[in-house]
Target: Thiosulfate oxidation carrier complex protein SoxZ
Amino acid sequence: MGHALVNVPASVKRGDAFEIKALIAHPMETGFRPGPNGVLLPRNIIQRFTCTYNGVEVFSLTLSPAIAANPYIAFFTVATESGSLTLRWTGDKDFMAEETVPITVTA
Model:
């Protein structure tokens, strides 16, 4: 399981767009690079990232081997109601990481 850092504002005014920033620790090995013994290192990438806001998907991304290690993702959504954001990364070798963060929406 990877270690993730997620940054969202503590509170947002209803109807305002706000930014969600996420960074996850992951090597993102392409499967094309030789290791110290000359043998190709096995592929190990995050394939999919999704974010749900109170259970409704608001953002998704399919990643490829061209993405750098420790991918950083930033995107916006609109504040509708207080609740939680759930960010999920899935990938090769049964990799799965999930972070849930609260969001408070004010009038």
